[in-house]
Amino acid sequence: MILEAILAFFECDREEEEAIVAYSKSTVAYLFFGWCDTWYKRGMKETPEQIKAIMDRQRAKL
Fold it and tell me: What's the domain range around 53?
């Protein structure tokens, strides 16, 4: 159910889009779902602020 909501939010069902746009949206949507799924499976211990800090640290390593 949450995956469907995320895919709808990122509008991943628009067939008329160029391939690069469609694949990019799909990549971001599934990445976001993966973060949510992992957070849930880990018991949702981290606060939104902690999740943001983790994302910031990860982005700095790219």
Answer: 2-60
Map tokens 């949702």 to a residue: 44
SS3 50: helix
DSSP category for residue 5: H
3-53 residue pLDDT tens? 999 999 999 988 899 999 999 999 999 999 999 999 999 999 999 999 999
The alpha-carbon radius of gyration of the chain (Å, integer) is 14
Structural domain count, the chain: 1
Structural tokens at position 21? 């746009």
56 three-class SS? helix
